[in-house]
């Protein structure tokens, strides 16, 4: 862990050294601003005056002297022009910005590339690195936590970039900015340390410092600087607390080892249970297959039985239908016969009535013949002797029996005729 703050300064150097200073710094210090040495002066005035003098001599003299003076004046003028052209060239490196001033007042900036400053009072006051994100390390010591336990050190790392070179050079400068940035970082770190307990101090390492970055941007924005990134790479606790923490870490490691061992045991048990579950599932699947096979067999048997019963029912139905058709046919035939017989009876009704009348006459005749005949016993003659009475008594039963026999015969003949 670094024990010193990064240092920022500005350097004075020639144009050839600006690139090296901006990229590599000077003696371990960061150099975001370089003040270039002005290589222009008024030495060009001497050849210019000499050229004017030679030009005057060429005008006033004659002959060879005039020609030599004129040639010397032209050469001196050309040399002075080249000198002025070379001294007017200003090359600003890519990624940097030049601060242009006139009579000491800042009038603008120069973008990367070649520029020409013809007037001697126009100059470049500074070349500012405006594209590089400059790293800055700030180890803050003795930062008290929420319990007022001073931490050994908190290292804070940030990157910043100069976005407004004119404001940076005009308002603060690199050396002063070093002190302002160091103070702002220390304040931000101490405020953050006050928000955590000593036990959670290690949580500051790699934590989110976006709020600190925003606060620094608000504080340093007026100087034309923007913080592009920040983090806390390392936190060192007090030695006594470090020993206590080492003990806790040892216990935590033992607990972690025990937990890993228990986790392995638990996984083995889980694997065993999973294997048993898989075995039970396979057994269950086999039984399900057997049950399905038995179910399919039963369904086939039931289907075959239903088919047989349906066939038998179809046969019985056909027999019943055949018997019914036969009975229906017989009934239809009998009905036809009865209908025909009825028609025949209807046709022979007169004949039957005549036959019935004739039979009635025959029956009446027979009944008349078999009817009892009255017996008149005349006693007017005066024969009332006992002998006549005895003969009459013997003759009457015979007459009665003959009458009964005749009636029986008549009834017997009448019965078949009625049927």
TrEMBL record:
A GO MF term: peptidase activity
A biological process from GO: proteolysis
Domain Band: 87-249
rRNA processing found in the keyword field: no
Stretches that traverse the bilayer: 42-61, 67-85
Protein keywords: Hydrolase, Membrane, Protease, Transmembrane, Transmembrane helix
Pfam family, one: Band_7
The protein, known as: Regulator of protease activity HflC (Stomatin/prohibitin superfamily)
């Amino acid at each position: 862990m670094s024990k010193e703050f990064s240092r920022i300064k500005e350097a004075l150097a020639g144009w050839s050294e600006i690139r090296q200073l901006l990229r590599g710094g000077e003696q371990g210090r960061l150099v975001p601003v370089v003040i270039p040495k002005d290589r222009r002066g008024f030495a060009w005035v001497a050849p210019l005056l000499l050229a004017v003098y030679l030009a005057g001599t060429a005008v006033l003299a004659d002959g060879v002297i005039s020609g030599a003076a004129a040639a010397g004046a032209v050469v001196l003028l050309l040399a002075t022009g080249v000198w002025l052209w070379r001294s007017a060239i200003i090359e600003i490196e890519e990624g940097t910005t030049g601060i242009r001033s006139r009579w000491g007042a800042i009038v603008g900036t120069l973008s990367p590339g070649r520029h020409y400053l013809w007037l001697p009072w126009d100059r470049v006051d500074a070349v500012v690195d405006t594209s590089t994100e400059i790293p800055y390390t700030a180890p803050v010591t003795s930062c008290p936590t929420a319990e007022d336990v001073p931490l050994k050190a908190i290292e804070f790392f940030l990157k910043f970039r100069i976005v407004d070179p004119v404001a940076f050079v005009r308002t603060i400068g690199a050396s002063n900015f070093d002190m302002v940035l160091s103070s702002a970082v220390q304040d931000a770190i101490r405020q953050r340390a006050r928000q955590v307990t000593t036990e959670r101090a290690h949580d500051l390492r790699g934590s989110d410092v976006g709020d600190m970055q925003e606060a620094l941007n608000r504080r340093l924005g007026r100087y034309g600087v923007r913080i592009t990134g920040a983090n806390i790479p390392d936190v060192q606790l007090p030695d006594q607390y470090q020993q206590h923490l080492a003990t806790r870490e040892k216990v935590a490691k033992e607990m972690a080892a025990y937990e890993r061992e228990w986790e392995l045991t638990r996984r083995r048990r889980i694997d065993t249970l999973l294997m048993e579950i898989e075995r039970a599932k396979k057994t269950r699947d086999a039984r399900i297959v057997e049950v399905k096979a038995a179910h399919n067999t039963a369904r086939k048997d039931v289907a075959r039985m239903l088919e047989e019963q349906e066939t038998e029912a179809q046969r019985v139905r056909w027999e019943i239908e055949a018997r019914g058709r036969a009975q229906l046919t017989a009934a239809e035939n009998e009905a036809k016969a009865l209908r025909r017989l009825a028609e025949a009876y209807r046709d022979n009704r007169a004949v039957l009535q005549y036959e019935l009348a004739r039979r009635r006459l025959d029956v009446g005749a027979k009944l008349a013949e078999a009817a009892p005949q009255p017996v008149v016993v005349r006693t007017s003659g005066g024969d009332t002797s006992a002998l006549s009475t005895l003969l009459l008594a013997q003759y009457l039963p015979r007459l009665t029996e003959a009458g009964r026999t005749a009636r029986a015969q008549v009834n017997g003949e009448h019965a078949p005729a009625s049927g």
